[in-house]
Amino acid sequence: MYSDPVVNEVRKNGEKLSEECGGDVHRMAERLRIATRKSGRRVVLRGEIGKQHARKSDRDSK
Fold this sequence. Notes:
By secondary structure, this protein is mainly alpha-helical. It has helices at residues 5-20, 25-39, 47-60.
């Protein structure tokens, strides 16, 4: 079976994060949200969630 190095790296990092957060998905999600904010990169959300987020951002910027 083919082993994709990118997929392997993502899985390895996910396992490491899970261990660091004691397997608590809420802590994992919060750490990922914090890292995303700190990165300064633009995050693109798609679908209905993205539309809701865009409307909220528009309201917040006024």
